[in-house]
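Inverse folding, one chain.
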């Protein structure tokens, strides 16, 4: 029988699980629950309903991708190397999507009425995406190194 939670998570799995938890809750909290973020997103009266629809779609997709990755990461019935790689690829999807969205014409990381806040020269969402993608890359690299 398959056991769902492993007692000893490896460092690569810990990194990926952390990214998964942030992916599950991050967009929901930032865009809908936390007042400062929600005012810029789903609770922004200036946003048309269709824009709110796409933000809600992103929130739900992030939750689903994070839960799918957690399911892969927290099983311990063999094939952990392939599952870790697959989970990391799944988790990279919304964060790569966030960065790639900036390449489309007419997009912006924030609406003009909100201050352009930066941390080390990057918008907080961009910084978070870069950090989480680096954590996923580290998880894959550490896992490959452990196995070789």
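Residues assigned per position:
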């Amino acid at each position: 029988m398959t056991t769902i939670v492993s007692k000893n998570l490896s460092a690569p799995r810990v990194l990926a699980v952390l990214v998964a938890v942030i992916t599950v809750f991050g967009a929901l909290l930032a865009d809908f629950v936390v007042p400062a973020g929600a005012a810029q997103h789903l609770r922004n009266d200036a946003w048309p309903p269709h824009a709110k629809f796409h933000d809600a779609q992103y929130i739900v997709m992030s939750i689903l991708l994070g839960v799918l990755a957690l399911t892969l990461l927290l099983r311990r019935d063999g094939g952990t190397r392939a599952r870790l790689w697959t989970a990391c690829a799944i988790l990279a999807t919304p964060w790569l999507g966030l960065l790639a969205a900036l390449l489309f014409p007419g997009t912006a990381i924030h609406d003009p009425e909100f201050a352009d806040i930066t941390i080390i020269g990057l918008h907080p969402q961009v910084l978070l995406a870069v950090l989480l993608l680096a954590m996923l890359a580290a998880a894959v690299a550490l896992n490959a190194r452990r196995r070789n």
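The two ends are 28 Å apart (CA to CA). Helices lie at 11-33, 35-38, 49-73, 80-101, 124-147.
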